Amino acid sequence: MTASPVVPPAVSPVVSPLQVGPHSVQPPVVLAPMAGITNAPFRTLCREFSGGKGLFVSEMITTRALVERNEKTMQLIHFDESEKPRSIQLYGVDPATVGKAVRMIAEEGLADHIDLNFGCPVPKVTRKGGGSALPYKRNLLRAILREAVSGAGELPVTMKMRKGIDDDHITYLDAGRIAVEEGVTAIALHGRTAAQHYGGTADWDAIARLKEHVPEIPVLGNGDIWSAGDAVRMVRETGCDGVVVGRGCLGRPWLFSDLVAAFEGRADGVARPALREVADVMVRHATLLGEWIGDEARGVIDFRKHVAWYLKGFAVGSEMRKRLAVTSSLEELRSGLDELELDQPWPVGADGPRGRTSGNNRVVLPEGWLKDPYDCAGVSEDAELDTSGG
C-alpha cells in the first residue's frame, strides 16, 4: 500500500477529532516538525491557511540545550499568542535530561503538548544513538518515555517514529507497545526506515499494522502526503486517526486549507493559486521571518531555501531562480518577483514530491549498537546535542 503523487481530494465524511490529552484537534491534521522550517513564521502561515484548525509543532528542540537555556533554543520555543495548543518536539537520548526538560516545560508553562522525536534519520543524530536509531534499544526507549510522562504532569506526551533502522531491524511494533505501557497519548509513524531517509515510497501498510497493534491510543500516519486527497486516502486505507504532513507543505502552506476542506467533507475546490498569489505569500513569509529574527536581511536570507519550493512548476528561468535565491532584502525579493509573468496559472504537475528524496543510505550508528536491543551501554556521554533545530 503506497501513496500516489497526486490525488484530487474527494468529499469525505467528517472524521472524528484527534484527541491529544485534553486537546481536541479537528480536523486531525498535524504539521510535522522540520528542522529550519517549522519555526514560528512558517507555523503562522500554515495556521492562517487552515483557519486555525489543526496542530502545528515546533522545530526539534534538544533537551540538553533547553535545560541549559541555550539562547537559540529559547527563541525556537517562542510561540505566538494565537498558537493554541502550543506544541514542542523534543529530542533526547538521556532519560534524566529528557525528564528535566519536560519538567521545565510543565513547571514554567512553556507548552501545552510535548512530542518526542524518535524518527530523525540524519547521521549527526543517529551516530549518537538518537532519533530513529533509539527505539532499537527497547529499555532505553522505555526509560525515556517513563521519565517524560512522569515529568509532564497533566501535559500530554506523544511520540513520532519510523518503522526501524532498516529492513533487518524493524522496531515500530515493539516501540508502539512500550509507548502504550508508559502512558504516551498518541503515536505518529513515518512509514519508512532510517535507511530509506526520504527515498522510495512510504509503507502505509505499516501504519495500518501499528493501528491494529495499539488500538488503545490514536495512531497518526506520515509519509507521501502531497495533497489533501492523499491524506483522506491514508485515513481510509489504514484506519489511522489522523495525518502528519511534512514535505508536502514545503512551498505550499495553503495545503492546510485543502486538508481542512477535505476532512470536513466540503467540495469547495483545491487551492490553486496563480503565481501572483504565490509571490505575495513568498514576500509575507520572508517578512515574518525578518520580524521573528529581528533583522530583515537575515530573514530574507533564511527564506532563500524556500524559493525553489514555492516556484516549482512555474515558468521561471534558471537565471531568475538563482537571482531570487540570493536576495538579501524584501525590496530585492519583491522587485525580482515583480519581473515574473505573475498571471501564470497554477502549473499542471506542480504537486508531488518536494524536499529531500535520497534513500537506501547506510545508517550511521554508535559502535556495537546492534549487538543487543536491550543493552543501553552503547549510548555515549556526548549523545545529547547542545543545539536545537535538527
Automatic annotation (TrEMBL):
Residue numbers spanned by region Disordered: 344-364
EC number assigned by the record: 1.3.1.-
CDD domains registered for this protein in UniProt: DUS_like_FMN (cd02801)
Residue positions binding FMN: 33-35, 89, 160, 190, 246-247
Family: Belongs to the dus family.
Gene: dusB
Reactions that this protein is recorded to catalyse: a 5,6-dihydrouridine in tRNA + NADP(+) = a uridine in tRNA + NADPH + H(+); a 5,6-dihydrouridine in tRNA + NAD(+) = a uridine in tRNA + NADH + H(+)
UniProt source species: Streptomyces muensis
Keyword Oxidoreductase: yes
Active site: 120 (proton donor)
Record-given protein name: tRNA-dihydrouridine synthase
UniProt domain DUS-like FMN-binding: residue ranges: 31-333
Keywords on record: Flavoprotein, FMN, NADP, Nucleotide-binding, Oxidoreductase, RNA-binding, tRNA processing, tRNA-binding
